């Protein structure tokens, strides 16, 4: 009577710390609750300090494996990050096949779950007899959209940005210009990739999504219904990392009154233009509110990819702030340049608001901390996230940009005051605190997310 061999699952992550964080959290639960062991497979292109630190901090039952680098220098210099990632996956398939075969010969490999731009790995999984799953690290609005892209591609005439709005079942209508950034230019190669991924999503045996019902109740209702030709959807979120609790900025927060500080950060890769950095700085000053700002060097070319891959600022970002700003703000503002322990920061009692690029991990972290948002979207699906957070969940206020895209200092001051002191801000804070409760209930034993993870684990255990 031998015990059944320990189930092992391979999780494939495309570059970006924001993709690895939720996968790692998911892996931890599979290990701790259901006795799995896990290999997290990354692409060489994604090596950055924050990522190595995260991967090396995981429990021993979770190993990581970086596939060898593949040449990407033939891609056009302005290739979009989603294109780079998708091409890197295709070129890594022979190495992935080798890695998975090797795992199969040493462990009881039961499934491959790949993230949003790694769908071409499904072919390799099928060849090796492994059920392919999609791990989707963002929300149902984005998932619904991507699942519909092939159909939209056949029916929508012209560019999506020119649509008055796009309505997807159960989702808030998205105004044309706010629709997913990589489908906004149909002549760009990245658009073809998104159509391709939209088709391949339907080939998965299941779609695991890092969101929860209370945040997108109507979309959840729609996607929970089985639909022919669409894999079952498992809502396992909000899965977020714990992160470190030790940093100088937390000690600064200890000195500040409750709910008084606006945390300002644009995620691991977001940067502003020089002009926008100036307006944001002077707007924060005009608002008269306390703030903690993770400052990054401006980029005027609008290219996020380099910052995204390294999660680091190149030049001294303080050098780009308005003359005398840092000195004048000494009493009320803390400026930091490097990686901050964001989760601990959001959960600090002094943090009362989050000016955020609406990256999905950041959004889930702020929901779990019960902190309302100023939506300042930059790229990827962030603009449609901002629509969902302001119009759907109503936990965010959105700053208004001028026709040229610039958000002037007066507008910064208005929206910051509105969030930190206004009635709209108070209402958003109440709602985000309700969502915090709902999120916690879902993750507890017997809750929706808990049971969704269990369902996946049971399926995987029964696979072999
Ligand atoms: N993060 C952090 N410290 C920083 C910047 C980012 O801990 O200084 C973490 C943040 O908590 C989140 C992730 O990095 O978990 C960023 O993911 P998100 O999806 O919000 O945005 P992305 O970086 O992918 O644009």
Number of strands: 15
Task: List low-confidence stretches.
Answer: none
Bin the strand percentage: 5-15%
How are the strands ordered across the major sheet?
3-2-1-4-5-8-9
Main β-sheet, in a few words? 7 strands, parallel
Mean of residue pLDDT values:
94
- What compounds are bound to the protein? uridine-5'-diphosphate
How would the global form be characterised? globular
Task: Note the total helix count.
Answer: 18
Helix share bin = 40-55%
Radius of gyration: 22 Å
Protein name: Glycosyltransferase
Pfam families: UDPGT (PF00201)
Organism: Canna indica
Family: Belongs to the UDP-glycosyltransferase family.
Explain this structure to me?
There is one protein chain. The chain is of the alpha/beta class and 464 residues long. Helix content is 43%, strand content 15%. The protein has 18 helices and 15 strands. Strands 3-2-1-4-5-8-9 form a seven-stranded parallel beta sheet, sandwiched between helices. The chain has a six-stranded parallel beta sheet with strand order 12-11-10-13-14-15, with helices on both faces. The protein has a two-stranded antiparallel ribbon with strand order 6-7. α1 links the parallel β1 and β2. α1 crosses α18. It starts with 6 loop residues before the first strand and ends with a helix. The model has no long low-confidence stretch (mean pLDDT 94). The site of uridine-5'-diphosphate has 20 residues, from α1, α13 and α14. The site of uridine-5'-diphosphate (UDP) has 20 residues, from α1, α13 and α14. InterPro entries: UDP_glucos_trans, UDP_glycos_trans_CS. One of its GO terms (molecular function) is UDP-glycosyltransferase activity. Its EC number is 2.4.1.-. It comes from Canna indica.
